[in-house]
Amino acid sequence: MLNRLHLTAIISIAIFQFVPSDKSAIAQEREGCFLVNSVGEVINLNQLCSPQESIQLTGNDGKFIEDYKRLAKGYSPDATDSLLQAIQRSPGQKIAAAKRMCAEAKSGVSLPEFKLRAIGQAANIENPAAKETFLAEADIISTLAGNHYCPELANK
What burial letters (b/e) apply to 7-33, b meaning 16+ CB within 10 Å? Predict the structure, then answer.
């Protein structure tokens, strides 16, 4: 009798582990970044979430972004999607990278050296899709940096 009771208890505990609890996920019912606490209060977390950049894209910056998007479409669908999402999410970062590249080029590093550096860095990336995206971005930014921000160095 004791063995039967013991076996029943063990089986009950094992089954109980697989029974779903009352804590379940629900679809997001509001826009933005928020948290609903245990008493149902909505806590705004927009300050903590990374917002999309909103910058004026005019002149060289606007042309840079347009050309970036155009060149991004020349890669595989996965790389294209990743590149377009990145430029949409943070255009200022891509513009800043191109301008930094020009600043370094003006101090003696050639634009082709940037591409070689990127190839060396990509050797450490195991995921083929991530590697392709990384190399595509390096290629696009180094090409466009010379065209838009340091044309005097583009052919060196």
Answer: eeeeeeeeeeeeeeeeeeeeeeeeeee
Q: How far is CA 127 from CA 41, 122, 142, in A?
A: 41, 10, 22
Q: Are the beta carbons of 72 and 83 closer than 8 angstroms?
A: yes
Task: Tell me the mean pLDDT per 10 residues along the chain, length 156.
Answer: 52 50 50 69 64 60 94 94 92 92 86 84 91 93 89 69
- Please tell me what DSSP assigns to residue 17: H
> 3-state class of 73 per DSSP?
coil
Cα 97 off chain centre by: 15
The whole-model pTM stands at: 0.62
C-alpha separations of 155 from 93, 110, 125, 143, 150 in Å = 24, 9, 29, 10, 10
Query: Exposed e or buried b for every residue in 38-68, given b needs 16+ CB within 10 A?
Result: eeeeeeeeeeeeeeeeeeebeebbeebbeeb
Q: Where are the alpha helices (DSSP H) in 73-148?
A: 77-89, 91-106, 111-122, 128-148
Q: Name the DSSP class of 39.
A: T
Cα 153 from Cα 99, distance rounded (Å): 12
